[in-house]
Specification:
The chain is built from seven helices and six strands; from the N terminus they run E-H-H-E-H-E-H-E-H-E-H-E-H. It is an alpha/beta fold and about 190 residues long. InterPro entries: Isochorismatase-like_dom, Isochorismatase-like_hydrls, Isochorismatase-like_sf.
């Protein structure tokens, strides 16, 4: 986890998601500390933001998935993370600072539809450290995708969360068999 070859990803830490997680205070406290340490060790920070496609360009599957997840029967009533809305903004206590990168994306994989892989290769980064929401959705799928692309994926156990503690725990259990799962203090110690 050499800081010169690592990146810290802050996955979808947007108001609507942060306000619905089971461990908000602990999650925010751990993430703030990790962000501070990352910046002091010059580890680049990439934030992601859910940025839905316009309705007419959204896939049928993603509409179905959103309808199922939010209990909506009419896909035109989906208003989740509307760009510019307060719910879509990054949570203020852990907001980006000058020098951080913000990636707008519309899938649960940091590499699909973005230039993140190219960016990481250009910066000679081989370790991708994941934090954010939701553990069982974008964090898990992006960590797997990072590994499939030859990166070392690391999931920070106390800096990921979900609206469901059960799903969060299940995802961490599965990921422990495939990626590096570590606590923020272990990451910070490795940087020193």
């Amino acid at each position: 986890m050499d800081p010169k070859h690592s990146v810290l990803v802050v996955w979808d830490v947007q108001n609507a998601l942060v306000n619905g997680i089971f461990n908000k205070d602990h999650f925010i406290g751990s993430l703030k500390k990790l962000l501070s340490e990352a910046r002091s060790h010059k580890v680049p920070v990439i934030y992601t933001k859910i940025t839905p496609l316009p309705f007419e360009f959204e896939s049928g599957y993603r509409l179905y998935s959103s309808m199922k997840r939010y209990g909506i029967s009419d896909p035109k009533k989906i208003s989740f993370m509307k760009p510019g809305s307060p719910e879509a903004e990054i949570y203020a206590e852990v907001a980006p600072v000058e020098g951080d990168t913000v990636i707008n994306k519309n899938t649960a994989d940091i590499f699909v539809g973005t230039n993140v892989e190219l960016m990481l290769h250009n910066a000679r980064i081989d370790t991708v450290i994941f934090t954010g929401i939701a553990t069982e959705f974008g964090v898990e799928s992006s960590a797997r995708s990072a590994g499939n692309r030859g990166f070392y994926p690391v999931v920070v156990e106390d800096c990921v969360s979900s609206s469901s503690e059960e799903m969060h725990s299940a995802a961490l259990k599965v990921m422990r068999t495939q990626v590096i799962v570590a606590k923020s203090d272990e990451i910070i110690q490795a940087w020193k």
